[in-house]
Amino acid sequence: MREETLRKILSKYEKKRDAAANRLELRKKKLYSVFPRLEEIEGEIFSLGLKMGKLALDNPDDLESIVEHSKQKLETLKREKEAIMKSSGFPADYLSMQYECPLCKDRGFLASGEKCTCLRQELIAEAYKMSNLKQVLLRENLATFNLDIFSDEKNSNSELSPKENMATILATCDNFIMNFAESNGENLLFYGTTGSGKTFMCNCIAKDLLDRGHFVIYQTAFSLFAIIEDYRFQKRDNAIDRESYESLFECDLLIIDDLGSEIQNTFTISELFHILNTRLINGKKTVISTNLTLIELDQRYTGRIFSRLSSNFNLLRFFGKDLRWENR
Ligand SMILES: [Zn+2]
Asked: Within the chain, which residue ranges are assigned CATH 3.40.50.300?
């Protein structure tokens, strides 16, 4: 399953590179039609390399001066090109390849032979069925966030209005994203009623960190534990492989949405503890959302899970009337 997935993804990368090369050709054509001298310079630079090689072969004793002379000529040509580009009004990198991932130049692998983060993310998105995430994230992100949909009116038993509360949560999440690379042991637990914006906030965090090139796994508790169970008991042919399973412990951020929606048994509870505890020990961050109250969390999960949550997670309560905005 993984082999086939990898092949599929790599052929997508090939298409991306082809598309980048095509776009570059188009840009070149456009630019050269306005500044034909640029095309001449390109040609001169190209033939300079050939000429230098030939001269060096014919006159091995003058190698040094040939190289020096060519270098100077090349410099002059480059400067002329830069000057034209500058006055043209086109961006300086207009004639460079523009890849989606500059790290691996859309190859999926780094020069060291290691998988690039972008490829690891693609593989994990496939394994954890996160492929529809991109569309959701286009719709839901911090840029589309509107505090005004929250009420200004305080409920008798809370200090803050839903709007003030959401502003505080927003600031906390913003900080979480900004300081994500720091090993500050920050984890977030969103709890509160349905429709109060928890999933939306999970989406926002996922989007921001994915955009910044972090390795993120995002899944609902229900699907996550079903995937883990398939893996553990090799229930299906397309069960995830070991590397994908281990990514749960190693990824930069694990987001478990809707904790409590999973089928609960000793297996899921011990897996949950194992994942949370290992991530905490290794300083890997986790975001959890749940419709359960803190008391329900304490009752449903073992004491050792609850104590990890209550002492290592920033507990953020979402409240306000059901806005149903998560389904919009
Ligand atoms: Zn890459």
From this structure: 117-327
* Rounded distance from Cα 107 to ligand 1 centre (Å): 7
pLDDT in tens, 10-56: 999 999 999 999 999 999 999 999 999 999 999 999 998 888 888 88
Query: Following DSSP, what letter does each residue of 209-223 receive, concatenated?
Result: HHHTT--EEEEEHHH
| 100 CA → ligand 1 middle, Å | 8
Whether the CB-CB separation of 190 and 318 falls below 8 Å is answered with yes
* Beta pairing partners, 220: 257
Going from the Cα of 90 to the center of ligand 1, the distance in angstroms, rounded, reads 26
**128 CA from centroid of ligand 1 (Å):** 19
| Ligand 1 geometric centre to CA of 86 (Å) | 30
Compute the distance between CA of residue 214 and CA of residue 210 in angstroms, rounded to an integer. 5
Arch. (CATH architecture) of 117-327: 3-Layer(aba) Sandwich (3.40)
118 alpha carbon – ligand 1 mean position (Å): 4
Q: Would the CA dihedral through 144, 148, 149, 154 be positive or negative?
A: positive
Residue 237 reports pLDDT greater than 80? no
CA 105 to ligand 1 center in whole angstroms = 6
| Cα 283 to middle of ligand 1, angstroms | 24
Q: Which residue has the higher pLDDT, 2 or 188?
A: 188
Are 288 and 256 a contacting pair, CB within 8 Å?
yes
